[in-house]
Amino acid sequence: MVRRRRTYLRLAAVGLVSLFASALPSACALDVYGSFDPDAPCTVGVSAPCYSGPLGTAGVGACKSGTHVCRIDRTFGACLGEVVPQKEDCFAPGDEDCDGKALGDDECLCAPGDTLPCETGQPGVCAGGVRTCTPDGLSFGPCLPAMTPLPEDCATEADDDCDGVAPGCTGTTDLGLSRGGLLSDVAFGVATNGLVHATAGVVDGDVTFRTVSAGSFYVDRRLSSLTSMWSLEVPAMDGKALARGVAVAAGSGDILAAGEFQGSMNFGNGKVLTSAASDTDSFVVAVNAGGAVRWARAFGGDQVQIANAVAAGPDGWIAVAGEASGVVNFGGGDRPASGADGFVAILDADGNHIWSRVFGDAAPQAAYGVAFTASADVVVAGEFDGSLDLGSGVLQSAGGGDAFVARLSGIHTNSKWSVKIGDDASQQRAYAVAVGPSGEIAVTGMFAGSITVAGTTLTSMTSVDAFLLVFEPDGALRFGKKLGDTTGGDQIGTAVAFDAAGNVVVTGSFDGAIDFGAGAVPSAGASDVFVAKYGSVDGALLWARTDGDDQAQHAFGVAALPESRTLLAGGFAGTIEFDAPVAPLVSQGEHDVFVTRLAP
Question: Which controlled-vocabulary keywords does the entry list (predicted)?
């Protein structure tokens, strides 16, 4: 130890330590005593060049070497100042990826947002695609469809929903079922929210067209095969009960049925409705998707109240429309009628009152159809005599009873617009209304004489004809159709719906013959079912069909499925022949319920 200290002191004395150390190779170093340590990796304090990028890229483009310094533990520290290849910046002039190209950005393929056409490999309107330049400009993104799937429109040749099939407009029957006993069983409505399908009406009754003198209320849920998942039947003790309308809530899937009853209806679990005295009262019932009754409400007084229609709207709102005499209370206080008046009531998802109004004068008025717009406005249709003021001006009947349609604000109940349908002393009546995917509004019913709307006049051929009117959201007329004959038969439109593409489907019953616009089609005798689909823009006939035999058949409900197929329901006697391979339906009693599904 003494010898090593003497060596250190002697070297230090002559000032040679630093000189000697700087002359050592980088792999050698002095220990603290000034002796050599050949196993050390670097010399403390010595700096050296460094580079961690790929071989051959240092000094190319923006890339350069850095330096690192040997630390006290004789290992090199971090490489400082080096620049290694980076993703090429298409918005800077340099060669950031150090590939040595003369123009550093020549690999930039596009400007962000640029597009190129491509093929997605998907069917239908989804086949054509677009590739979009990525934000860095180095490449185009994946091929994405230029169009997303749309509701299938049978009026076009395209495969709108991209399922590989482009069905034409045929209206052929692909399913058909019936139910019934010895008496009259009739579905007065059919509804769907796309997943839950329902019908409602009367069973074990005495029915002539829309007039019911006896029977029990029924509502059922149907599977996609149209078979019944469950059925709720409630008689009215000492009276009658029936549903005249049905709807399905979009979110909850609750089935809503509305109608009329006399006597007492027991829905179980303490839910009992009793009419006032022996008069007819209106009611609404909500049944969950499993078949349990959530709530039931009766609205009546000392005279007649009838709920003719029900609709499910945004936020769980429920609209009920009908006719009332005397005084009726929907939960917001007494609403006196001036005779036989129409009414509209809005309830929440639990049946609580939001707003209601009774409208009319001393002459008779009634609401038969109701629907919601997407903005929660309420569209109501029916008939009136005398004068009718819903808030947008007085409508004056020409006599004999005129039809009307009005759009009411969902907030303050007054109408935004209203239209009279009728212009002479004959009778006109609107039985149903529907709102389409773009806010258009369709109304159907029956008329004698003539009707004029916005300069368009429809004149009945003989007796009573059906009509179809389609309005823009602001109340302007889009097109109008009459469905009649020259043989003296009656044609009545009872229900209307829009498919997802905006085409309109109208149904009802007729005798004699009916002309949809392509020539008269005779009935098989008595009263037959008709259903027709018209194009969304100009009302071009897409298809039409009639079904029945020499006995009476009536359609009262129609609904459109998301894939633009049609559900149809009503009551029939005798036999209804459908398209193969669907078997004919044969009535077991006076009338049986029928439910069918039609192709787009």
Answer: Signal
Q: Tell me the pLDDT band of 70, cut-offs 50, 70 and 90.
A: very high
My answer on whether 359 and 211 are in the same domain is yes
- The answer to whether residues 179 and 228 touch, using CB atoms and an 8 Å cutoff, is yes
Distance of alpha carbon 446 from alpha carbon 467, whole angstroms: 6
Widest pairwise Cα distance in the chain: 138
Alpha carbon separation from 590 to 185, 207, 482, 583 (Å, rounded): 8, 9, 31, 20
pLDDT tens for residues 178-223? Answer: 999 999 999 999 999 999 999 999 999 999 989 999 999 999 999 9
Number of domains in the chain: 3
Give burial (CB, 10 Å; 0-12/13-18/19+) of 22.
Answer: exposed
pLDDT, tens only, 141-179 = 999 999 999 888 888 888 988 989 888 889 999 999 999
CA distances from 332 to 6, 106, 311, 328 (A): 112, 74, 19, 10
Residue 209, domain extent: 199-230+241-265+273-287+296-411
Phi first, then psi, for residue 490 (nearest 5°) are -105, 140
C-alpha triplet 269, 328, 278: angle, nearest 5°:
65
